[in-house]
Amino acid sequence: MPGVAWQRYQLHLQQNAQAYVTKQSKKRVLAADIRAVFNAPSANEAKRQLDLLNDKY
User: Fold this and answer.
1) Rounded to the nearest 5 degrees, what angle is found at the Cα of 22, between the Cα atoms of 11 and 7?
2) Residue 20: which domain range?
């Protein structure tokens, strides 16, 4: 993407985050939480979801 100094694909971000979770059931929960950030309908909602994710983990 032009003008973007650093880009991380969603799949790779999820895989990297899940590497720190030991139980398969928790990996699914983490993946759903990350998807909630990326699938948010607005930037404000994405920020809110990200804040929730940070607080949870």
Assistant:
1) 25
2) 10-56
